[in-house]
Amino acid sequence: MTVAIDPDFNPVPSLSREVTVTVANSAEPAVLAVFVPAEGELPDGLPDGIDRDALAAAGFTGKAGQTLLLPGAPLRVLVGTAAGIRTAAELRDAVAAFTRAARESAELAVELGDATAALDPALAAQVATEGAILARYRYDALLGEPKTVPLERLTLVVGGAAAAGSDDAADAAEADLAEAAELGAERGLILARTAALARDLGNTPPRHLTAAKFAEIAERTGPDYGLEVEVFGREQLAELDLGGLLGVNAGSTDEPRMIKLRYTPADAGSAPGDGDGAGAGTPHLALVGKGITFDSGGISLKPAGSMQGMKFDMMGAAAVFAAMTALRELGATAAVTGWLMCTDNMPSGSSTKVGDVLTIRGGTTVEVKNTDAEGRLVMADGLVLATEEERRPDAIVDIATLTGNAMAALGLGTAAVLANHDEVATQLQQAADATDERIWRLPLDHRYREQLKSDVADLSNIGGQYAGAITAALFLNEFVDGLPWGHLDIAPTMQSERDELWRSTGATGFGARLLAEFALDFTAPVAEANGDADADAGGSAGAVGDTAGDTADAE
């Protein structure tokens, strides 16, 4: 079918938009954020007559995220901080609330002074930058007349550092403070761009972002960020015996693609897999992302309502690609290899049928009992390839919008993490804490492995009615060859139905910043994988109600 799509259409407009972030000791901004706690003295500099009684009369109590605009020059936006700003997440949220309240302004200013004294100056500048840019994000690439005022300039005002003894000491302290804030702001710009790139890819309509188009974007932009990019088409996938990816693609008129990405640190020598590898002392991390550009469910067709948002089913691949674009600029010292497994999942006369048996790379056969549990099939091929690298990775992490069961268990604000190795789970949790992308560890309970048995193949692609997030992870665990491994099920967090602080409506970009932070701080696990991870790890996710097996396990 021929459909008219502008050949100049750009699926990733965020890469061409620039926000200037300036660190200054003082400023005369048009719009200024003023952080106000719920109790105690009000900040200095408010207009005459503004006291607690006046604010209460206007309905402003100082609760977290509440805003009130005070007309004047500058326009002051009061932002409630409840008990005050004590964490990076609270500052990111507060700046995001400010940015949304000042939606008509292209230039904003935030004072990082007494209100943020509990935070390291570099960290404060970083999260303030992230909060402002991500809150103003809007995907308007297909709008004739975009209504969102783009953010053009953000000024971070850092107060003078107190230094006793001499003016020289005070000047030196101020210079150190400004330098730290500038470094933090630069880091915030990189991480905000990373999330925006993932959001762009997720928000792009599926006909505009086929697997082939995704590969073109990676080939065109990846090298700009220090990545080696290799793309595999249908014939090459067949030569590699990638039966999972090809089986899911069987009903589509759009060809599949596997996109392999490599990041090699500047001082690490050759890339992993190139003979000598990236240096014996250089950690090697493999990331595998699910890239289902649209998921109809295949022959196991989804109900119409369940297809809404299925363009977001490639957010795992988007997160891996976006995260890897940040590694060189952030100075990551680990070598990272990414595998993006991309296709759509469509019904047709050539589709994989319920009852068909697919052969995953390496020879494992899988009976397809539900074609809507397709993500694990494409991911299995990627996981096997990751284990076959000439220099095997020290750990593998996969990320996928995998199960409705994870949504039922954790709601829409927290992703599930499962792992065969406690160190991998711990490092993922640390990255989640740093980015405020919430995850919760579920048990990799091998007692549920029985549910994956098949009468005609080595495995079935779905388990029973319950514990679908766990059985999906157990399925993936079959293909990591005992390597330390973690699995992020981001089905709960792939999209936001409304603007909420720095999370904008549409694709959230969840996992992009998390994986970037994870790769940046990655250290090779030293303990042996605990294949029978503690069934109590992370606590109980609770009951998942009466969700039917096919729906709970669907991807």
UniProtKB/TrEMBL annotation:
Gene that encodes the chain: pepA
Role: Presumably involved in the processing and regular turnover of intracellular proteins. Catalyzes the removal of unsubstituted N-terminal amino acids from various peptides.
UniProt GO molecular function: manganese ion binding; metalloaminopeptidase activity
Keyword Ligase included in the entry's annotation: no
Ligand binding (Mn(2+) 1): D295, D372, E374
Active-site residues per Swiss-Prot or TrEMBL entry: K302, R376
Family: Belongs to the peptidase M17 family.
Cofactor: Mn(2+)
Cofactor binding note: Binds 2 manganese ions per subunit.
Descriptive protein name: Probable cytosol aminopeptidase
Locations listed in the record: Cytoplasm
Binding site for Mn(2+) 2: K290, D295, D313, E374
Recorded GO CC terms: cytoplasm
Segments forming domain Cytosol aminopeptidase: 370-377
Keywords, comma-separated and alphabetical: Aminopeptidase, Cytoplasm, Hydrolase, Manganese, Metal-binding, Protease
Positions of region (Disordered): 530-555
Organism: Leucobacter soli
